[in-house]
Amino acid sequence: MKTLRLILGDQLNAAHPWFEQTSDEAVYLMAEMRQETDYAPHHIQKVLAFFAAMRAFAEERRAEGHKVVYLGLDEGRNTQGLEANVRMVMAEEDCERFEYQWPDEHRLDEQLKALAAEFGDRASSIDTHHFFTQRGDLAEQFKGKKTYLMESFYRRMRKAHGVLMESGADGMEPAGGKWNYDATNRKKLPKGHRPVEPLLFERDVTGLEAMLQDCGVKTIGSVDAQHFLWPVTRAEGLELLDFFVEECLPRFGDFQDAMHPEYWSLYHARISFCMNAKLISPAEVIQAVEDRWRADPDHADITQVEGFIRQFWAGANTCAGCIGPTCPGMQTSISLRQTTPCPRGFGRAKQKWPASGTPFARAWITATPTTSSV
Questions:
Q1: Which pLDDT tens digit goes with each residue over 73-94?
Q2: Whole-number Å distance between alpha carbons of 80 and 221
Q3: Are 347 and 328 spatial neighbours (Cβ–Cβ below 8 Å)?
Q4: How far is CA 218 from the centre of its chain?
């Protein structure tokens, strides 16, 4: 029975069980859609990164022998909507079954559940095989509690997966004797200190930029499309991870919250996009960092290593849990009773930005395709 398998733009996991073997009975659908570019204002670098990564991923899977139907944003037959594109390709490829991986967004989760209902028992869904967490983990962690404390979730996950743990008199204990070194991770960059030069990639995405303009996609921010600096393949993501572990990890914790008008990247890993697109996995990142520390504790001390893993875990492994029962209420839940609107500069208005040397303006120009400092 021929099956259409949907791959979303943030599901670029080459190690997913779907790709363990090729089959004439499996057709993969990937699509650039206005539904995704237009539901909220996006930074142009984010849109370009996703489209470039999606196209590269599709070509890699085709090279392995998988059949991939790819709908570019400017293709006439692209309906620009998820449901219509799925129905169209199902008919064109004579597919009887529909399969999809669980999305990270509640919006898409509801949309795909409704679409799958049309096919009844001819539709099914599967885990992305990316996160440490499962969808019910956060709900279980905070069941019956009035507040959600990330620190308790962080400690639970470290225990469960044996991350930065050591044998002690009372069983497994946190490495270094403390769970959290946050108090030592708030230093300013010393006067005259020059951080390591960031590893940047060179890719010409002017064709993609022109396509966005021709299609009328509205974005925020700016980009040097001739010299696109972000990693958009698994190989590049792993290269950047290795660079971080060797060159940046030794000072990451000290300056993880620092900003400087001259140095936009400081000691950050800048692998957030690769993580969000699932080009590399949380397990790979944590394993690389912990293995390097255990092999040579003098390379980066425990305060640097724990500081990174704490920030990384908070940002990279909660999505799967937020899709669960608590998600629908988060949009209207305001625990701090804050009702003042966000400043108009947060994505929706034309602004006269500060001078190009300021950290905020520099971030606007070389903004990571995601929001995490990792």
A1: 999 999 999 999 999 999 999 9
A2: 23
A3: no
A4: 22
201: Cβ contacts below 8 Å, ≥ 6 apart: 228, 229, 230, 231, 232, 236
CA distance 153 to 326: 15
- The token duo for 21 is 């073997």
Domains 3-126 and 137-365 share a fold: no
**Within 255-350, where are the H helices?**
272-276, 282-295, 302-316, 319-322, 327-330
Q: Where in the chain are the domains? A: 3-126, 137-365
Please give the Cα distance from 150 to 362 (Å, whole number). 30
Burial class (CB in 10 A: 0-12, 13-18, 19+), 196: middle
Give the CATH H-level superfamily of domain 3-126.
HUPs (3.40.50.620)
Instruction: Give 101's strand partners.
Output: 126
**pTM flag (> 0.90):** no
* C-alpha span between 196 and 266 (Å, rounded): 7
Residue owning tokens 């597919």: 95
In whole angstroms, what is the distance from residue 94 CA to residue 21 CA? 21
Q: What is the pLDDT of residues 130-182, one digit of tens each?
A: 988 877 777 777 788 777 778 888 898 899 999 999 998 788 999 999 999 98
Could you give the dihedral angle defined by the CA atoms of residues 327, 155, 142 and 314, in that order, rounded to the nearest 10 degrees?
Answer: -20
Q: What are 70's two structure tokens?
A: 């790819």
3-state SS, residue 176: helix
Tokens of 16: 């997913």
